Amino acid sequence: MRSSTRPTRRNKPLIFIFGPTASGKTALVERLFSTGYQIVNADSVQVYRYLDIGSAKPSSELMEKIPHHLVNILEPWQQFTAGMFVQLADEAVDRIYSLGDIPVLTGGTAFYFKNFLYGLSRAPECDPEIRAQVAAELKEKGAQALHRQLGEVDPASAQRINVHDTYRITRALEVYYQSGRPLSSFALPSEPRFGMKPLILNLVRDKQELHHRIELRVEQMFDQGLADEIRQLKRMKAGSSWPALVAIGYSEFFRAFDNGCADISTIKADIIRNTKQYAKRQMTFFRSFADAVDVNPDDTAAVEAVLKDYLEKF
Q1: What is the pLDDT of residues 194-218, one digit of tens each?
Q2: 110-118 and 264-286 helices cross at what angle (nearest 10)?
Q3: Please, are residues 218 and 31 in contact by the beta-carbon 8 Å criterion?
Q4: How many Å is the Cα radius of gyration of the chain?
Q5: Which of 230, 258, 259, 291 is the 20 to 30 A CA-CA neighbour of 124?
Q6: What CATH number is attached to the domain comprising 171?
Q7: Together in a domain, 296 and 269
Q8: Which domain holds residue 155?
Q9: pLDDT tens-digit map of 7-66
Q10: In what order do the strands lie in the sheet with 68-69?
Q11: Which residues contact 235 (CB under 8 A, 6 or more apart)?
Q12: Same domain, 226 and 88
């Protein structure tokens, strides 16, 4: 990977903005990072074309105003891994620096931030025979059965992996079968890559307020035409096996189709419930960044002060 020879970033500013779903990341970017910054998307769904409403993708107007990288780069039937993210984000950050701007990584996929900062885990590459064995188990038993199996041998990985995310479920089981150790036991490198010293902004809201914002977000998605977006995907022959469609906001529709039931009110309630659960997991993961600065995204002056203090060091 080209990033292995990348020069130091020790004296270059880099900003992380993360927070749970509906915490206000996009609005904060638009208010404070419209000039002299470029965005590197760290959301695992916004990388896909055609998944606009359900992923809360930035508007075309905002992406014209502020350059965005790693948005709309894959078809929804293609797999996107943490390793691919790190490589493409490295390339995007280098381009942004070459243009004299400051890169801002923002999104809700927590382990993308961690892998970008520290690198990928030292888990072993999988033996082809073990991979074939796990693939056969998946075909025979299904994703939910393998997810339950993963929960028995690696509960930490099972907690963060969606029950329908067959790629990550099988990868975690492959590592366990090969090494006898859970994937979660393979630590990331302990030092940031290339001397990176990012400003890490963690957007924090009261739980009740966040839940209310999630409910409003889901209602807005349906008002904006989420069901029509799903119909367009169905016309493309999309199904629950497509990697992009394990995402909340899409998986609920396709599971309903698979089960022969597509009641919109039930699907909407499932999306709201699953989003709240996901937001809780996001907040837990984000708290693992020791140097993160908790900020209220509505307190523009406070965020500006933190940003000013950080940039004065460069």
Answers
A1: 999 999 999 999 999 999 999 999 9
A2: 30
A3: no
A4: 20
A5: 291
A6: 1.10.20.140
A7: yes
A8: 128-185
A9: 678 889 999 999 999 999 999 999 999 999 999 999 999 999 999 999 999 999 999 999
A10: 68-69, 37-41, 102-107, 15-18, 199-203, 293-295
A11: none
A12: yes
Residues 159 and 276 in one domain: no
State both tokens at 247: 């995402």
Q: Are residues 160 and 192 in the same domain?
A: no
pLDDT band at 186 (very low <50, low <70, confident <90, very high): confident
pTM: 0.85
Shared domain for 94 and 221, answered yes or no, is yes
Q: Characterize the bridge pairing of strands 293-295 and 68-69.
A: unpaired
Please report which confidence band the pLDDT of residue 263 belongs to, taking 50, 70 and 90 as the band edges.
confident
Give me 26's structure tokens.
Answer: 């996009």
Cα–Cα distances in angstroms (integers) from residue 258 to residues 45, 58, 145, 254, 272, in the given order:
21, 30, 17, 6, 20
The structure tokens listed for 88 are 């493409």
Q: What is the pLDDT of residue 184?
A: 82
Domain boundary among 148, 170, 185: 185
Residue for token digits 């992009």? 244
Q: Six-digit token pair at 120?
A: 């990928």
User: What is the number of structural domains in the chain?
Assistant: 2
Do 156 and 253 fall into the same domain? no
Residue positions counted in the chain: 314
